[in-house]
Write a structure and sequence with these properties.
Layout lengths: L17 E5 L3 H7 L4 H18 L7 E8 L7 H24 L2 E6 L7 H14 L5 E9 L1 H17 L10 H5 L12 E4 L18 E4 L9 H13 L8
Parallel strand pairs: 1-2, 1-5, 2-4, 3-4, 5-6
Helix pairs in contact: 1-2, 2-3, 3-4
The structure holds 3-methylbut-3-enyl trihydrogen diphosphate (2 copies) and magnesium ion (MG).
Amino acid sequence: MPAPARPDDGDGAAVLRHLAIIMDGNGRWAARNRLPRLAGHRAGVEALRRVVEAAPRLGIEVLTLYAFSSENWKRPAEEVSDLMGLLRHYIRSEVKSLNENGVRLDFIGNWQALKPDLVSLIEEARALTGGNTRLTMVMALNYGGQDEIVRAARALAADAAAGRIDPAAIDVAALAGRLDTAGLPPPDVVLRTSGEMRLSNFLLWQAAYAEIVVTETLWPDFNAAHLMAVLDEFGKRERRFGGR
Ligand code: IPE
Ligand code: IPE
Ligand code: MG
């Protein structure tokens, strides 16, 4: 399927390069279907597969996915362990086909603090897919926007204390360059499924001028048609970036 023509493709005004998704609603989907929460998370992984397959065909270059927040540790231990198990299984079973499909798999968040076997899987996935260019898929794992900004500030402070950088030279670009997302374009759209109107600590810095799209669809029900509807919605937005 070729990427469909979009109204502003010509002047580049409305090209959705980077889509960031808060994949929410797995628990409600499970409850609605009278299933355990784990079944909702499993169905959520299926939705993730669908979206990763459809995204590059729609011209999307970067897909950032909120998979586990730095606050999700507050959930019952059993659910945390189910989620970690699913992530482990997803990376293990998908990395080969992602690689074959030209997907570069990367991670943001304090993923280095996860269990050592998961850290190894992540490092292997990054090394294997690092040269791919068709789609950059960024998984936010143990991610919190505040935590990310704190880590970046700490790195800059250490550079300043060691005399490597003049504090007066710290600007927007310097801080952005220390975030986990350094080198990635900012998200054009932050999409949240399941109707909640909040960011829940996702990409606080990077979303400064992102278009916010909230859909009522629960994440496990999300498919390529829903994704195309997001592109349509984005095409109708007027982005001003503070100008007129
Ligand atoms: C999103 O679904 C998945 C994660 C946060 C990991 P939820 O589990 O938050 O689903 P709801 O919000 O309870 O429906
Ligand atoms: C945000 O969803 C985190 C992920 C989707 C991974 P939550 O379900 O954790 O957010 P809150 O608790 O409703 O704000
Ligand atoms: Mg939720």
